[in-house]
Structures are given as structure tokens and as C-alpha cells.
Amino acid sequence: MVCCSQMLMFQCTLFLCAVQTAACVLPDVLRSLWVFFSYNEALMYLIHAYQYNKELLSKGIYRGHDEELMSHYRRECLLKLNEHAAALFESGDDQDVEEGLTTMNELVVPCLPLLLVDEMEEKDIVAVEDMRNRWCSYLGQEMEPNLQEKLTDFLPKLLDCSTEIKAFREPPKLPSFSTHELCERFARVMASLSRTPADGR
Description:
Layout: H1 4-25, H2 28-57, H3 67-91, H4 94-116, H5 122-136, H6 145-159, H7 179-194
Helix pairs in contact: 1-2, 1-7, 2-3, 3-4, 3-5, 4-6
């Protein structure tokens, strides 16, 4: 019987592999939208997969998956969402600005405590600082008064988020796989990812 962590790990890895593949073949506008929605959907799988995996590893080092690998893709997903939200804010369009800030308030900021709770995870802490620096860099730029007001309202939420971890909504239900089928599909996804250059974060 396949545990929840294995199922979630497979699903979120599959999502990210699909995102990387699509980035090579879709036109720029479609690629931007498709990547955003894919990372948006993948985030909850990654959050839950990491937490389940951590529980399994606490019972033995061979009970779960590579924690560094899972941490990398959780971090990468949040960085991509932050990048997309910042680009929307920079556009200056009212609707895009609202969408970008909603992405930050509802998806990115609530997940930051997960990256800050373990001080030993230096890459996670660096990623959080990168995200904060991106938004703080706007303070020295000229912008419309309404944008300045929205930025001023948002920054305290980003900078002062506590390390208290909140409950997250459950990811969508996963289909059932046999152990053999899951292992085969997981191996194919991992082989594909191994051919994709990592950014080192």
C-alpha cells in the first residue's frame, strides 16, 4: 500500500516536471499563464508532501524521501509564484496589481513560516530574504500614489510574518496507483528532472 507522502511526492514532482517541459514549447503569454496556474496548484501538494515526509523521516531515515529534494521544489515553487506576483505588480495595471498582491497574501506569505521554522535550512532562509528584498526594492522607485499605498499596506505582512505555522487546505484528492505503477512513473519523472539543469537554490 502506497503512503500519502509517496503519492503527494509523485504528484507534485509530476506537476513541476510538466511546468518545465511546457516552458520550452508554449508561446510566451500562454507559457506565463500556464506556469502560474501549475505552480499555484502544485504548491499545496508540495507543502503537504514535505510535512508528511518529515514525519516519516522522524521514524527512520529510510522511511521517507530525500528531504533536500523536496525542500528544493517547495522553495522553487514559492520563488516562482513570488516572481510572477512581482511582475504583475510592476505592470501597474490595477487588475494585475490586485492579482499579484492576492497571490502573495493568500499563497506565498502564509507559507513563509514553513521556510523560516528551521534555522538550519540556509537555502530556505536565503529564499525568503530574496523574496522580501524584491518587494522592498520598490520603495526607492517612483510609482503612482495608489501603488505606493498598496505596497505600504502589504510590506508589513511580508516582513513581519511570524513563525507560527497555520493549517493549510488539503490538496485535491489523488488517483489510486498500484505500488508498481507508482514506482515506474516516479522513476520516469525523476529521470526527466535529472536532465533539467538546477538553479542551485
